[in-house]
Amino acid sequence: MMLQSPLILQIPPSMQMTDEQLFDFCQVNSHLRIEKDRFGHLSIMSAIDDKIVNLNGSIFEQLRVWSQQHNVGVIFDVNTRFKLSTGANRLPYAAWMKLERWNTLSSAQKEWFIPTCPDFVVEIRFLNHNLQLIQEKMTEYMQEAEIKLGWLIDLQHRQVYIYYPDKLEECLDNPDTVSADPVLAGFILNTSSIWSLS
Fold first, then answer.
1. Where does the Putative restriction endonuclease domain start and stop, copy by copy (predicted)?
2. Does residue 132 belong to any structural domain of this protein?
3. Alpha-carbon gap, residue 94 to 110, rounded angstroms
4. Which of 5, 191, 192, 194 could form a disulfide linkage to 130, CB 3.0–4.6 angstroms apart?
5. Residue at 8 is within a domain
6. Is 21 within 8 Å of 56 (Cβ atoms)?
């Protein structure tokens, strides 16, 4: 069952998890999507079902094809965790990071919570999910020094919100395609195929 909003668990300061404990907690509950906000609250989100897999797969596959052609960065799927400068722990549906930034990370950092924000993130609003909560998450991303571009794909209204740091968001109504220029030069997402899956 898809939750309309994440289940928010407020953790008392005396019971805050270390990164190691949070990692273990997420591992034993791998059937759920668990994020931590900058206040230490845990968001328990819907499990990954077939619909999420298909939608995310369409976005990720298009990004993967572009990435292989250009070979200037690394792509990440819905299972990759990023630790932001605020301490928040996020799981974007898709992300991309410049290769030179990725290469500065140690092997251990690459296999655990990636201790930085990606250059590009994609979040998805599924039907009946709380739009404001996801918009707040996008605003959080845009406050990170490393971020260059973010997309919020709203399946309910067939809209795509475009986010850049220090700029007002832009909203596209029912676009057939969305361009990531100039951050991901030449990457154009075919959104019409995504609407057909929603």
1. 20-191
2. yes
3. 16
4. 5
5. no
6. no
Q: Which residues lie below 8 Å from residue 82, measured CB to CB, with a gap of 6+?
A: 89, 90, 91, 92, 95, 113, 114, 116, 117, 118
pLDDT tens-digit profile of 36-93?
998 889 998 866 666 666 677 789 999 999 999 999 999 999 889 999 999 999 999 9
Quote the tokens at residue 191.
């959104």
Q: How is residue 194 written in tokens?
A: 């995504």
Cα–Cα distance for residue pair 14/156, rounded to 1 Å: 39
How many whole angstroms separate alpha carbon 163 and alpha carbon 92? 14
Q: What's the rounded Cα separation, in Å, for the pair 91 and 39?
A: 16
Report the amino acid identity of residue 63. Answer: L
The amino acid occupying position 56 is N
Domains contained in the chain, number: 1
Q: Does some domain include residue 145?
A: yes
pLDDT tens per residue, range 145-178:
999 999 999 998 999 999 999 899 999 999 999 9
Burial class for 100, CB neighbours closer than 10 Å (0-12, 13-18, 19+): exposed
Please report whether residue 57 resides in a domain: yes
How confident is the model at residue 3, as a pLDDT? 53
Count the alpha carbons within 13 Å of 19 in the hemisphere toward its beta carbon.
Answer: 13
